Amino acid sequence: MQGAPLLVYTTPMKPHQTHPSQPRSIEWITFDCYGTLIDWEGGVADALTPFLAPPVDRAALAARYIAIEAEVEHEAYRPYHEILAVTSARLMTTLGHPLPAGRERALPESLPSWRPFPEVPAVLRALHAEGRRLAILSNVDRNLLRSSIAHLGVEPHLMITAEDCRSYKPARGHWDRFRELSGAPAAITVHVAASQFHDILPATALGYRTVFVNRHGEPVASAPTRAVPDLRALPEIIRDLAGP
Q1: pLDDT (tens digit, 9 = 90+) per residue, 7-19?
Q2: Of 20, 31, 113, 120, which is least packed with CB atoms within 10 Å of its CB?
């Protein structure tokens, strides 16, 4: 991992003091991880394509996975490694290619190998160098997220998972936990994510400024503060939103 590791806070910090007349500076940037920092759809497709007859439409495969995973998450809280296993089993069954015996956990076992999008490590290093505090709010288990952070090149100040909240975004548990631990109000925080449903809509409703990472050029229906095709412009956007 490049650079000195940052402190991971495990106890609440003092709430920040702000004044209406002060510029709306940005101290914290919160990120979704999979699909935003880590190539989640590519990881799913790489893990499941070998069990399908070619040719495989990787985008369609990932889209069907996303729909089924949302249903599984809505049923009841499960650890995310179980969400991955249950969802992939249902998906492959609906496609007529059930996972073979002994490979039922192919998807969760693949997650530690999923890689970040190419621009991500440099962007995170730039934000850290500018003094921003970074947090990841993710719908996964702690050990799975830790395996992915090893690829990012920067250690976040805070990691908040579904395992910590016992709920999955778009529920507000991640943001409640973030504010409890950081003491940071929405006014000095920007949330960055690639899912309108899981992140941009709920974060906006909670008063956060948001950056929607629209990697697939989908219609923007969530009124984010900014929308970008990837993260390359994020440091400049954060400086602009922070004001003078």
Answers
A1: 333 333 333 333 3
A2: 20
